[in-house]
Design brief:
mainly alpha; single chain; 140 residues; 2 strands; 6 helices; two-stranded antiparallel ribbon; elongated
Length: 140
């Protein structure tokens, strides 16, 4: 449930950034940091794909898997555990790379990106108990 709630919060952050990147909103509301600088940087896209669109996809995936894991059919599923661990690990790695870019390449911080990085880190930590299930430990 924790992963589902945090994924929903991350989804809203990513959707806000994507809407801004696509020109569907006015200027980013950024209380601290330089969100516009980060959003305008060449690192805000991978090829033609906005990084925020990848965030939307990642958060939707985490949300879907975590919600399925709450259903009777998914409660005892090792596949759900494996997907939660894998998706959260990939998200954490990607988020760490983006944070590195903000700090050492762009030299600007976006509060929304930092919030997303914090959410992904907590999601990864929340998924770690699933490793025990994958190793044949407790099914609970």
């Amino acid at each position: 449930m924790v992963i589902a709630v945090l994924s929903m919060a991350g989804l809203f952050v990513a959707l806000y950034l994507l809407a801004n990147k696509l020109g569907l909103t006015g200027p980013l509301i950024c209380g601290i940091g330089e969100c516009a600088t980060v959003q305008a940087s060449r690192w805000s896209t991978l090829g033609p794909v906005p990084v925020s669109a990848l965030g939307v996809g990642g958060y939707v995936s985490l949300l879907a898997v975590s919600l399925f894991g709450l259903q009777p059919a998914g409660l005892a599923s090792r596949a759900v555990s494996a997907l939660l661990v894998a998706l959260s690990a990939v998200a954490l790695g990607f988020s760490a790379w983006l944070t590195y870019l903000e700090a050492f390449v762009i030299h600007a911080w976006c509060q929304w990106c930092v919030i997303s990085a914090i959410l992904v880190t907590i999601i990864f930590v929340a998924a770690l108990p699933e490793v025990r299930r994958l190793r044949g430990g407790s099914e609970a």
